[in-house]
Write a structure and sequence with these properties.
Structural class: mainly alpha
Number of strands: 0
Largest sheet: none
Strand content: under 5%
């Protein structure tokens, strides 16, 4: 099917379609701008998360600080997240600077084409309409001339007409007949011209212009398909990029080694304390030679009894 077959005299419909098609392109451009905005916000948030957490990770206190392979692995993981953020930021930039801009430029260019289609379709219809009006005027003139000629013929053939009036009436009759014949020729010629132009309109000029409308729509649909495909290709790159990033993350995770981290923690935070020597026995200062340590404790001597007053 084609526009030339389906839309004879459908210029009003197609002009609305052209306008609606450009509006649709504009809506797609807005969609891509908003998509890019979300990509950039996601990239910004992810980059901020990775950067903030990396700083917090690096300045953690000794009690919560990771060491060894865990520390190295997580630094690598944060770097991979920064790469993922960078991918989304670059995708947003490409969509804004290439995709949305290309659609905007396309709309500007095709708006000019739309104006030309509007003017060409208006002119085409106006020309045919003017020709139909010429035909209508020509036929009206022809019918009027014939009626005048017929009326004059009746006057000439009126039996009640005075003989003295006949020459004058006959002269006018011939004039009106000639006028009617000329009007008939003019009408016939105008009719032929109108039919010729109408045939050209429906068989040549209108189908050619309808083809331009179809070319416009085909180009628009193909262009938007190409832009959508570009967006798809760019966005689909996230899968292998993300896969590569998280493959690296997986490698960092696999690199975490419990024994290595225990050794690293011991090396970094070791107290440096060793076991002290055995504690020596320290005797009490009052102990002497009679103690269990080979000495005898001195036996205290009793004081002599003293005599006191005798009680009765």
């Amino acid at each position: 099917m084609s526009f030339a077959e389906s839309f004879l005299d459908g210029f009003d419909l197609l002009n609305k379609r052209v306008e609606g098609g450009l509006k649709s392109c504009s809506e797609f451009a807005t969609f891509y701008k908003n998509f890019a905005k979300n990509e950039r916000e996601y990239a910004k948030g992810l980059a901020k998360l990775a950067s903030t957490e990396k700083k917090e990770f690096q300045k953690a206190s000794s009690s919560s600080k990771e060491v060894g392979s865990t520390f190295s692995s997580w630094e690598g993981i944060f770097s991979e997240l920064e790469k993922k953020a960078d991918f989304h930021n670059q995708l947003a930039t490409k969509i804004e600077n290439e995709l949305s801009l290309a659609i905007s430029n396309f709309i500007k260019e095709k708006t000019k084409t739309k104006k030309k289609l509007d003017m060409d379709s208006d002119k085409l219809r106006k020309d045919l309409k003017a020709q139909h009006e010429n035909l209508s005027k020509s036929r009206t003139k022809y019918v009027s001339a014939v009626k005048e000629s017929e009326a004059q013929e009746k006057l000439c053939n009126d039996p009640n007409q005075k003989p003295s009036n006949i020459p004058k009436l006959e002269t006018k009759r011939r004039q009106l007949v000639e006028k009617a014949e000329q009007a008939d020729k003019d009408y016939t010629q105008t009719l032929a011209t109108t039919n010729q132009k109408q045939s050209e309109y429906y068989q040549t000029t209108m189908p050619a212009l309808l083809r331009e409308y179809q070319d416009f729509e085909e180009e628009r649909v193909k262009f938007m398909k190409d832009q959508t495909n570009t967006w798809y290709v760019w966005s689909a790159e996230e899968s292998p990029v993300t896969a590569a990033i998280f493959q690296n993350v997986g490698s960092h995770v696999d690199a975490i080694n419990v024994d290595t981290d225990i050794s690293a923690y011991c090396s970094e935070f070791a107290t440096g304390v060793t076991q002290p020597p055995d504690i020596e026995y320290q005797p009490h200062e009052g102990e002497g030679v009679g103690t269990p340590r080979g000495t005898q404790r001195a036996t205290p001597q009793k004081k002599p009894a003293t005599s006191g007053p005798t009680r009765f």
